[in-house]
Amino acid sequence: MKQEEVGACGIRCEHCPIYRIPFDRVAAQNMRTWFAENGWIEKDMNVEEFILQGPYCTGCHGPVETHWSPDCDIRHCCINENGLHDCSQCNSFPCDSLESWAQTDEMYSEAFERLKQMKKETN
Questions:
Q1: Which tops the pLDDT comparison, 81 or 58?
Q2: Is the per-residue pLDDT at 2 higher than 70?
């Protein structure tokens, strides 16, 4: 697996629907619906407007201005504080914060398992 494909938390960027918005209409439609349901955009915004407006995410290693969650604690700890590519490279891996995060969503749990595998492969 190429390093640039994986976010700090282990999510494979090319599988992330927010990352895919600019080039995957189905992902854009699903994310538009989710954003509207959460009140982050107007419910009547069409998918073309949504794609033009964003949100955009170029991954954890892209500019923070285009990161889906610029205030992400995992990204901040891994990249900003520790200068690592991903959490599997951390001496404290797995930490309580990452383990708690992994329990909140199936995609996060898969990402956490990916990090564990990456850690195993480098040891």
A1: 81
A2: no
Q: Which regions of 1-123 does DSSP assign to beta strands (E)? A: none
Q: Is 117 helix (H, G, I), strand (E, B) or coil?
A: helix
Are 45 and 55 in contact, with CB atoms under 8 Å apart? no
Q: What is the pTM of this model?
A: 0.80
Whether residue 32 is contained in a domain is answered as: yes
Read off the pLDDT band of 63 (50, 70, 90).
confident
Domain that residue 84 falls in: 8-122
Q: Do 5 and 110 contact (CB within 8 A), yes or no?
A: no
Q: Judge whether 26 lies within some domain.
A: yes
Single-letter code of the amino acid located at 33: T
Quote the number of domains for the chain: 1
Residue 2 lies in a domain: no
